[in-house]
Structures are given as structure tokens and as C-alpha cells.
């Protein structure tokens, strides 16, 4: 239901696109509401700032895991979450390059990797996905 396999195929083919989380609901009584959302890293709460964050990939998608810190320093990426039990670093065609059991991870984007994204796994169906990081050489 998350279509991350399709996202990775597009990313691996060179397409640069963001991954969003949304609900497809038609009736508030069916229990399929507020199960997927996006968290924007906006400078303020104005619509312009939020749209700018969404257009530039400064957001993450979630179904329950909360990312509390995301820091990039050169080719190193550090992530902290409030409630992930495992974090997986995926590169290129969704190849796992690192796995950390717990709520944080630091990973290096080695040479030869075109993109890297992080999946944060929580309990049950709770996940969060970062946007892809593209290597700058």
C-alpha cells in the first residue's frame, strides 16, 4: 500500500521526485482518516513557507513515526526519532546499506551512491520516510 518500490524504481532511473503520505478517505466514520501525513520543515506557519518546504523536499512522510532530528553534514546523515524501533538506510534501487535497531542512526553516503533515503519503522503500521538525499560530488 505504500508504493515505495515504485518510488525507488523512479528514483533509480534518475527521476528526482518527493514521496508524500496521504489518506484516501471518503467517510469519516470508516476509520480510514489521519493515517498518513506529511511533516514540513517550514520557517514559519504561513502557507507560503509550508508550500516552499513541500516543493523543495524539506518534509517527511509518516504514518506514525515522528522524526525529531535530521542533520546532514557533508556525506553523513544523522537521524533521531521519538518512536522508531528500526531505521533502514536505502540506496539506489532500495538496496539496504545500513540498519540500526533503535530510534537513531548515522550513515555515510559513500561514493558511487546516487541517492539515499531513510525508512523509520515503528510499531505495527507506523513508519516514516525521509525524502531522498542526492549525492553532490
Walkthrough of the structure:
This protein is mainly beta. 13% of the residues lie in helices and 37% in strands. It has two helices and ten strands, in the order H-E-H-E-E-E-E-E-E-E-E-E. The strands form two sheets. Strands 1, 2, 5, 6, 8, 9 and 10 form a seven-stranded antiparallel β-sheet that branches. Strands 3-4-7 form a three-stranded antiparallel β-sheet, with no helix packed on it. The longest helix is centred in the first third of the chain and has 9 residues, at 4-12.
Key terms:
137 residues, mainly beta, seven-stranded antiparallel sheet, three-stranded antiparallel sheet, globular
Quick recap:
The protein is mainly beta and 137 residues long. Helices cover 13% and strands 37% of the residues.
Overall, the morphology is globular
- The number of distinct helices, counting runs of at least 4 residues, comes to 2
Distance between the termini: 34 Å
The count of strands amounts to 10
Protein structure class: mainly beta
Mean pLDDT, to the nearest integer, reads 91
Beta-strand portion reads 35-45%
Order of helices and strands: HEHEEEEEEEEE
Helix percentage: 10-25%
Q: Radius of gyration from the CA trace?
A: 15 Å
Query: Major sheet: size, sense and barrel closure?
Result: 7 strands, antiparallel
User: Which stretches of 5+ consecutive residues score pLDDT under 50?
Assistant: none
Amino acid at each position: 500500500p505504500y508504493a515505495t518500490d515504485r518510488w525507488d524504481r523512479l528514483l533509480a532511473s534518475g527521476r528526482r521526485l518527493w514521496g508524500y503520505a496521504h489518506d484516501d478517505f471518503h467517510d469519516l466514520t470508516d476509520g480510514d482518516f489521519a493515517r498518513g501525513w506529511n511533516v514540513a520543515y517550514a520557517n514559519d506557519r504561513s502557507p507560503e513557507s509550508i508550500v516552499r518546504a513541500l516543493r523543495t523536499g524539506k518534509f517527511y512522510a509518516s504514518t506514525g513515526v515522528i522524526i525529531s532530528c535530521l542533520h546532514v553534514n557533508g556525506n553523513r546523515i544523522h537521524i533521531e526519532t521519538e518512536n522508531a524501533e528500526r531505521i533502514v538506510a536505502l540506496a539506489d534501487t532500495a538496496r539496504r546499506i545500513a540498519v540500526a535497531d533503535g530510534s537513531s542512526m548515522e550513515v555515510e553516503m559513500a561514493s558511487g551512491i546516487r541517492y539515499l533515503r531513510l525508512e523509520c519503522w515503528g510499531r505495527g503500521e507506523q513508519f516514516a520516510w525521509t525524502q531522498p538525499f542526492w549525492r553532490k560530488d
